[in-house]
Amino acid sequence: MKVTLKSNENIESLVRRFKKGIEKSGIMKEMRKREFYEKPSDIARRDRVRRKKNQQREAKMAERRESNW
Fold it and tell me: How far apart are CA 18 and CA 4, in angstroms?
């Protein structure tokens, strides 16, 4: 990511803009994700748990919607 110094801009605001840009682009998230090796079975397990939680959340929201009508 490239950030250029604007006129009358101090270094702190430049660094802040850089950090915000990095955060928005998802580079830090990707870096943390790849920091350590994760076995494919662990990735699959995490995905299974995430899908199960999402299904439970959706079922709960549908139940709430039904009870409100």
Answer: 9
